[in-house]
Amino acid sequence: MGPVSADAINRYLKQTRELFGDELFLDKPQASLKEDPQQMNPDFPSDLNNFYKQIHQCHNCALGDSRTEFVFGVGDPEASLVLVGEAPGEKEDLKGEPFVGRAGQLLDKILAAINRSRQKDVYICNVLKCRPPSNRDPLADEVSECEPYLIHQINLIQPKLIVALGRVAGKTLLNVDKPLKSMRGILHDYHGTPLIVTYHPAALLRNPNWKPETWKDFKWIRSIIDA
Ligand code: SF4
C-alpha cells in the first residue's frame, strides 16, 4: 500500500473510536493491487467494457457449462463503493445482473438511505460470475479461477471501500473461516483496499432483527465513502 496521509489516519481512528471505543482492530495487509504484478494481469484490458467482452464466455471452471447467463457486474465504473456478493442466484443467473429480486430491491433501499444507487457511485458484483448449482457455496477451485476477475474489476474501479455482503463473500475474500459476527465491525484489507463485511440482504429478509445492525454498518460505510 502507498503512503497514507495524516488526515486519512485521523479519519480512520475517529471512525473506529466512534464505533469501538479505544479498541483498535488491525488486519495484516495483503499485497496491494498496484504493488503485486501478478494481480495486475497484463493480459486483461484496461477498461470494464473490454474486460467484459474478453471474459463473458469464460469456461475456466465447470460453472461455465451450467450457467444460463454470465453475471459480470453493474454500476458506476468510477464508484467509491464496490459491493461484492458470493455468486449469482437463480434470478441473477436468468437475468445476467447481480442482486435482483427481493434481496436486490432491499439492497436498493439501503443504498438510497446512504444517498447512493446502483447507477450512482456504487458498483455491484460477485466473487463468482456464474451460478453454482442449487446456490451452493463456491468451491475453492472455482474461487481460484474466478477471483482474479474480481481483483481486476476492483483494480480498474479503484473504490474507496469494498463491502462484502454476507458470511460467504466475507470469508472467501478474507480467506478465513469465521462466522459473520467475527468479521463485522472491522476495517479489513483486500489487496490494499479497505473492506467491511456486513449482512447479505437475503439474510435480512429472513431475519429482519438484523436490520438495525446493518444500518449501523451502512452509516459507517457512508462515513468512509463521504470522507
Ligand atoms: S465462475 Fe468464473 S471462472 Fe468459472 S466459468 Fe464462470 S467466469 Fe469462468
Describe this structure in a few short sentences:
By secondary structure, this protein is an alpha/beta fold. It has 10 helices and 6 strands, in the order H-H-H-E-E-H-H-E-H-E-H-H-E-E-H-H.
Walk me through this protein's architecture:
Residues about 1-5 and about 25-35 have low confidence and may be disordered. This protein is an alpha/beta fold and about 230 residues long. A 6-stranded mixed beta sheet has the order 1-3-2-4-6-5, sandwiched between helices. The two termini are about 20 Å apart. It has 10 helices and 6 strands, in the order αααββααβαβααββαα. The radius of gyration is 17 Å and the shape is globular. The chain has one domain (about 45-225): Uracil-DNA Glycosylase, subunit E.
| CATH domain class | Alpha Beta
**What is the helix/strand order?**
HHHEEHHEHEHHEEHH
List unreliable stretches of 5+ residues. Answer: 1-6, 23-35
Largest sheet: 6 strands, mixed
Q: CATH fold name, please?
A: Uracil-DNA Glycosylase, subunit E
Number of domains: 1
**Can you count the helices?**
10
Shape: globular
Q: In whole angstroms, how far apart are the ends? A: 19 Å
Feature tags:
227 residues, alpha/beta, Uracil-DNA Glycosylase, subunit E, 6-stranded mixed beta sheet, 10 helices, 6 strands, globular, binds iron/sulfur cluster
Topology overview:
Elements: H1 6-20, H2 48-55, H3 63-66, E1 74-75, E2 81-85, H4 90-95, H5 101-113, E3 122-126, H6 140-157, E4 161-165, H7 167-174, H8 180-183, E5 188-190, E6 193-198, H9 201-206, H10 211-226
Parallel strand pairs: 2-3, 2-4, 4-6
Antiparallel strand pairs: 1-3, 5-6
The structure holds iron/sulfur cluster (SF4).
